[in-house]
Amino acid sequence: MSRIKIAVLISGGGTNLQSLIDYKDLGGDIDLVVSNHKDAYGLVRAEKSGIESVYLDSKGKTNIEYDTELLELFKDRGIKLVVLAGYLKIITKVLIDEYANKIINIHPSLIPSFCGNGYYGLRVHEAAIEYGVKFSGATTHFVNEETDGGPIIMQDVVEISDDDTAESLQKKVLDIEHRILSESVRAFCENRIEIVGRTVKIRRD
Ligand code: GRF
Question: Does the reported pTM lie above 0.90?
């Protein structure tokens, strides 16, 4: 069976992208990286690894128009899996219909806590600290039309200590993100994922 072609969407530094690039064997190949921000360092990471990197300007385009252009890029390259790795634009029906349960997102909390509209980046960790939860973590999930609402693939936790700040918690959670994102992508590429209703079952390798 031919290896799965992967596209990764980014908006910023791309440490999650880098974890995918560095992972021993994803079972698929990252063939395209697209950013909606021209100066996203993740584009540099892609170029350094010989991966096609595209800055797709979103100025003057609706989300539907933007996703229609993304879909064309994906179809031209035979992309079979889309990974959102620190990507901050809304995904519309245009992509969700074409890539149902084939778009994976990483979120830096234990969904359904501290997620949904307005919860991204440091804000997520500030909310966890403010609420006083004792554990936080990261979640990978399939993308549907509800922000951060699709079937959960993997989660893992970190303990929050009394002296943790939003910044120190973000660093702890980022390590978890890097691991579970790569493991989720690999499980998908190795066809070890089964979805029953909202429940995602993963056969261990
Ligand atoms: C990470 O916390 C990710 O979960 C969030 O954006 C942050 C930066 O990700 N969506 P990256 O370093 O750009 O991959």
Answer: yes
